[in-house]
Amino acid sequence: MDISTLLIIIGEGLTGAGRQVLQIAIIVIPLMVAMQFLEELKILEKVSRRLEKVVSVIGISGAGALPLLVGMTLGLAYGAGMIIKYGRDGKLTQREMILIITFLSLNHSLFEDVLLFVAIGAQGTILQIIRMVVAVSFTAALARFIKPETDQQKET
Questions:
Q1: What total of structural domains would you count in the chain?
Q2: Mind listing the pLDDT tens digit for each residue in 8-27?
Q3: Is the pTM of this model over 0.70?
Q4: Buried residues in 118-147 as b, exposed as e (16+ CB within 10 A)
Q5: Which domain holds residue 113?
């Protein structure tokens, strides 16, 4: 293989990678801006209160609904930041943090990941339904095995 062929291969690889990065940016940046507006307008907080009964199915309190919602919509980095903040503020128990992390490891970036897979040909609705069913089932099962903390355990 001569140097000109190698340069062509590298050029095509960089061009293809650049197109993929651009496609990802076109999807991710507007989503992140929209989510920031929703967060600033306290809309995410209102939605999380309404989700309290839904998240209780997987052993999470209403306080855990917002970090879960943020992780599902914005991804693991934002979700983890909120989980850490809520944990330090005493809004979440260690059990809830484990359950939220478990759920998010199976089903995060609700829009971002699905749109990226749709861009390469996947069926978005089927993909999201499968991810949600697996995450809810596994997290609900785990919640049955992790005992809730007593008030005495929380203080130590």
A1: 1
A2: 999 999 999 999 888 877 87
A3: no
A4: eeeeeeeeeebeebeeebbebbeebbeeee
A5: 3-155
